[in-house]
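Lab notebook, bench 4. Still working through the backlog of constructs that have no structural model yet. Next entry is a single chain of 281 residues. Request: give me the structure tokens for it.
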Amino acid sequence: MTSTSGSGERILAILDLFTADRREWSPDAMMAALGYSRPTLYRYLKTLKSAGYLVSAPGDGLTLGPRVTELDFLMQRCDPLIAAAAPFIKILATRYPGVALITRWYGSKILCIASERSADAPVSSYPRGQPMPIARGAISRVIMANLPRRDQDRLIDTQRDMLAGPNTTADALRETYRAVRRMGYCTAWGEVTPGVVGVAGPILAGERMPIGAISITSAAAVMNKTRLAAIERDIRDSAAAISGIFCARGSAPLRDLSPANHTITDQDFPATDQQPRRHRS
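Model written out:
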């Protein structure tokens, strides 16, 4: 007889079958993928359909049901990370042309949970709700840089080709992550989406563990040194401020990011590259 814990894990395994590439499954395909007996599978499917997690599709298929949408609605209003970070991405999207994102880290995935975009922003490769595997890019590196050494080493060992390619040593990756951790942000050019520059900062919770990141992606064509320096500063400060909400230890005083106390004008972003000047605070 299957234990309650085992039953729960088996039900979750059914839901885990559904991906962006495979949005509909037949019972026979589920049995082949999971190895469940027909009576066991149909018992679980009855539970999931009754609760609204699965619905019948045309033919013999099943797909995700309205309960998933309901939970997503609730998550947007209950997730403390969204509540804490939403004002920051709104301000970032107002200041800079691009897409400002909040991402969560769980398991070995990164998930966009909230975003704000400027009218002329480039399209993000990962819209809200689509998982991002650990790969190259600013978001990946700021999370990897702040993981405990044992977790970082595990991912380097198992996913080195995805992280940096076969010719990059583990020591070289660790040195890159140490540098990112010291800076408090990471900048990447065209690594996830061609023609886009991304800047990300880590959001840390208890024990200084990364729970996600705040980032902004902009078209490389509109970027210059002054604008990039301003974005990197605002991302670093925003990430530290949001982290301060979740961490038991206090954070250093941070520049107030509210529009009333920090007004950005076109004069802050000259058309030609030059050394960044100090912004009003």
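Notes after review: The chain is about 45% helix and 15% strand. The two ends are 65 Å apart (CA to CA). Flag for follow-up if needed.
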